[in-house]
Amino acid sequence: MGYERQKDFGTPESRSTEQVTLTIDGRDVTVPAGTSVMRAASESGGKIPKLCATDNMKSFGSCRLCLVEIEGAKGTPASCTTPVAPGMVVHTQTPRLEKLRKGVMELYISDHPLDCLTCSANNDCELQEEAANVGLRDVRFGYDGDNHLALATDHSNPYFDFDPSKCIVCSRCVRACDEVQGTFALTIDGRGFASMVSAGQDEDNFLSSECVSCGACVQACPTATLREKSVKAIGLPERAVVTTCAYCGVGCTFRAEMRGEQLVRMMPWKDGKANRGHSCVKGRFAYGYANHKDRILNPMIRESIDQPWREVSWEEALSHTASKLKAIKAEHGPAALGGITSSRCTNEETYLVQKLVRAVFGTNNVDTCARVCHSPTGYGLKTTFGTSAGTQDFDSVMDADVMMVIGANPTDAHPVFASRMKRRLRQGAKLIVIDPRRIDLVRSAHIEAAHHLPLQPGTNVAVLTSLAHVIVTEGLANEDFIRARCDWDEYQDWARFVSDEKHSPEFLEAVTRVPAEDVRKAARLYATGGNGAIYYGLGVTEHSQGSSAVIAIANLAMCTGNIGRPGVGVNPLRGQNNVQGSCDMGSFPHELPGYRHIHDHEVRALFEKDWGVALDPEPGLRINNMLDAACDGTFKAVYIQGEDILQSDPNTKHVSAGLEAMELVIVHDLFLNETANYAHVFLPGSTFLEKDGTFTNAERRIQPVRQVMEPANGYADWEVTQLLANALDAGWSYTHPSEIIDEIARLTPSFSGLNWDKLLEVGSVQWPINEAHPEGSPVMHVEGFVRGKGKFVVTEYVPTDEKTGPRYPLLLTTGRILSQYNVGAQTRRTANVMWHEEDLLEMHPADAENRGLKTGDWARLASRTGETTLRTLVTDRVAPGVVYTTFHHPSTQANVVTTDFSDWATNCPEYKVTAVQVMPSNGPSEWQEEYTELSERSRRIDPAMEPAE
Amino acid sequence: MSSTIETLRRMAGDIARNFEAMGHDQAVLATADHIYQFWDPRMKAMIFADDHSKLIPIARDAIEHLAEKGHPGSQTRATKWNDVDGVGRSDAG
Ligand code: SF4
Ligand code: SF4
Ligand code: SF4
Ligand code: FES
């Protein structure tokens, strides 16, 4: 495939259903009303020269290159700002237009460096292209008038440069930042000839400005003014392959633009239905980890964790691992083995790992990192609606009138979706934020939340129930919807429960610390403000009442009828790229793929027949129970694919004790992660650029992941799992992930219509995809709930056992930030560290003053479980009594302090609430020092075995 | 660090407390059902063999129900896994 830029129709698509017919250059053209003349011409195969227009933002009409003649109209209107009209007769190319356009172009070029041959945008520059299109051959005013050619380039951003000498002041960058990204970082300073693009204040550069490095302006720039550094370094791409971002649950699709086997840049794909052509700094730029020097490319083994690693061949690694596994199984039985699937790997890889555990190991001891994030979503939504997934597509937010964001920080964790939310909020939708912290969404450029309920961490269920109390007792429930769609008796039980005075906002204020009047207003707004959509994140699930909170959210949506159409719904914002998929693929110890319980003999029989083995009918162990069983000596070996449980799971000391007690820990990853400090076998993994497969994002959208380069380690991850299975005599023979998809489709009704070719053809599809939904399902529960009647469930507020007291008077809550991703294994190995070098402890000024702490001071953070140290950031973003940190850096080890408490139903850990004390400190804690030493020791690779340079 | 049996007691207690609003008898069945659905055999065996006097009453009765009478059947409250009308054992779709 050759390289072509993505098509640009000049102005956005019109959503009108009314059609208009006009004539353009003698051709009859029919388009939706509201379409611009420019777009109509472009859609019908014509091309009007343009510079300031591009189709993901409103037209601006500044460059005057797109002039046309319209019969009966005066002058030469700009086609980008002129809407079509019935019977309009348009001419796009006339001698008069030619002359005008040449004149415009001449002005631009006279102030533009003529270094096209050596410019990084040569052959990829709209200015150059349009100059040729309008037939410009000479510049009559010469090149020595006033110009901007001497302006210096701003190299501050690690990923792109800004060279103002090439700027034509088309404002596309400014508008991209405003309209697409919603950050408003750029302005045009000055007027007329003096006008210039600038990031922030005079003294700012791109790095120090408000810019979040999303890349939208770079993508929008028609010249080489804003340009990826990688294009300058490598050269223009020769081909492009559409693939899916491997970072977060938004699931942005990109064109991986390649030159040979080198990735030149990731360009957001305009036809991507999750991102609609937008991106964030991680997916767009932070892919450098893929060939970072720390990446391990050869398998390694060692007898015990105090030995250095020994590099071995794949054959040796696999036969060694298989014989160990066989010996352990023979001695201790299959229940001593287990596996952990990864939400970062593809559906096909995850499916194979659970198949390996169930069919080859012979046990259901398989779990996944979703255990520690969204397992309560699975439980809660399945209980109430009948399906373990969000109800909407992302587009749905554009029809929302009221958004309720609970325990989520979309601008940092789901940035591309946050940009869509912000766009809708700027159009006038109302916002309710329920979060202990004043997240950015509460107040940002042109956005102000109608209500921010800064609740005490751990009181979600109390706040949600009090919202329900207001809705029911003030008569705001949608009884018609409830009678038609839900179980009426269960509703009445629930309504009685929430109506009790002890669930009123006034009564609960003492617990939640949210002013009752604010709760009442927010409840009224959600119930009566039109389409109400709930978006929630880990601030809901990672609590001892996580499942109850999810159920309480579902109850709210049902009792207000906010389910089953665009603009409403219950939407979990998933953390990692394939959390939804890894759960769908049967990664939980009690469920086969498609959320079907392992007790169900008919379902088991289906898999037993296909796989040719008998399955254990009993649920297996969850991660935390595996670790307990390891300490008890009944769990001996684990295969961990693409997950760093030592860093990501709570109570690090418990995790390390469990791992240390095992005989065989197999880590299959890109890097020697923290868990690998306790491993005996290391199998090198492949990146998302090195394999085919699929990811499923937070909207249940299954999207293709494409191989654009050979796996540097030799094998894609699904191949490694297959090799391991075959070393255990499984006899698998998959030759491509498409065959794994066929197996999934064959065995799982909600995927029965899925196959690889179809996916490549349509780009993406939202499950269920089967006979009933041949094109997939953007919105769920349209006619009825998947489970039949919607189920109201009483949600008792059971406070966590983790309590503050005189020794631990503060509550710690955790989260993440934009530029880093989870345990940071990837993002820490990119230039993104420029934005976040270390984890900081956010603390309210009053609490900081009491302890004599200032921003930048080292603080000792101690809980009943453990202690660590990190630097302080004093801010009123957090309420008094609450402290906050991220968990991106292993040296901080925030999980040394988190506890064993977990969600009552799913054991999702309670990361969001830990009682702590904070004191000034001089530096790293004893544990941090010991741990640094251990990890240095444990990462030794026997030099004798290193291949000669 | 708590021992496995302490963890199991806490887990059983957490489940029971969250079903408490249903009233004792219903909560006992729901708790028993939940443990049946989600716990691995060694966890069940361990808590069956434990001294149940340390548990809150709902958890205690649930464990005893499960140990003596077996699975109480799927409970309509919160642990009913979807036999969607007609589709039978549907997976979520
Ligand atoms: S930087 Fe690029 S997009 Fe922005 S005004 Fe200049 S030429 Fe236009
Ligand atoms: S990179 Fe994104 S945030 Fe930064 S200036 Fe450009 S559009 Fe704005
Ligand atoms: S929003 Fe998420 S999926 Fe999209 S580019 Fe950023 S990290 Fe990737
Ligand atoms: S493209 Fe229409 S005025 Fe610039």
The percentage helix of chain A is 25-40%
Q: Which ligands are bound?
A: iron/sulfur cluster, FE2/S2 (inorganic) cluster
The fraction of residues assigned to DSSP E strands of chain A is 15-25%
Low-confidence stretches of chain A: 944-949
Shape of chain A: globular
First and last CA, distance of chain B? 41 Å
Q: Biggest interface in this structure?
A: A-B, 65 and 36 residues
Written description of the protein model:
The complex is a heterodimer of chains A (949) and B (93). In chain A, a hairpin with an 8-residue loop joins strand 9 (239-244) and strand 10 (253-259). Helix content of chain A is 29%, strand content 16%. Chain A is of the alpha/beta class and 949 residues long. In chain A, helix 13 crosses helix 17 (516-528). A seven-stranded mixed beta sheet of chain A has the order 13-12-27-26-25-14-15, with helices on one face. Chain A has a six-stranded mixed beta barrel with strand order 31-35-32-34-33-36. With 93 residues, chain B is mostly helical. Chain B has one domain (4-81). Chain B has helices spanning 4-19, 24-38, 41-48, 57-69. The longest helix of chain B is centred in the first third of the chain and has 16 residues, at 4-19. Chain B is globular and about 30 Å long. The chains are: A alpha/beta (949), B mainly alpha (93). The interface between A and B is large, with 65 and 36 residues. Bound molecules: iron/sulfur cluster (3 copies) and FE2/S2 (inorganic) cluster. One iron/sulfur cluster is lined by residues 176-177, 181, 183, 185-186, 211-217 of chain A.
Write the topology of this structure.
The complex is a heterodimer of chains A (949) and B (93).
Chain A lengths: L18 E6 L2 E6 L4 H7 L25 E2 L18 E3 L3 H16 L15 H8 L26 E3 L9 H10 L4 E4 L6 E4 L16 H5 L5 E3 H6 L4 E6 L8 E7 L2 E7 L12 H5 L14 E2 L8 E2 L2 H19 L4 E5 L5 H15 L4 E3 L6 H10 L17 E5 L3 H4 L1 H12 L3 E5 L8 E2 L2 E2 L2 E3 L6 H14 L5 H7 L2 H12 L5 H8 L3 H13 L3 E5 L1 H4 L4 H14 L10 E3 L6 H6 L6 E2 L3 E2 L3 H11 L11 H10 L4 E5 L3 H4 L3 H10 L2 E6 L11 E4 L8 E4 L4 E5 L11 H11 L9 H11 L8 H7 L2 E2 L43 E6 L24 E4 L1 H6 L7 E6 L3 E8 L7 E5 L27 E7 L5 H13 L11
Parallel strand pairs in A: 1-4, 14-15, 14-25, 16-17, 16-21, 17-20, 21-22, 25-26, 26-27, 31-35, 32-34
Antiparallel strand pairs in A: 1-2, 3-4, 5-8, 6-7, 9-10, 10-11, 12-13, 12-27, 18-19, 23-24, 28-29, 29-30, 31-36, 32-35, 33-34, 33-36
Helix pairs in contact in A: 8-25, 9-25, 9-26, 10-19, 13-16, 13-17, 13-19, 16-17, 22-24
Chain B lengths: L3 H16 L4 H15 L2 H8 L8 H13 L24
The structure holds iron/sulfur cluster (SF4) (3 copies) and FE2/S2 (inorganic) cluster (FES).
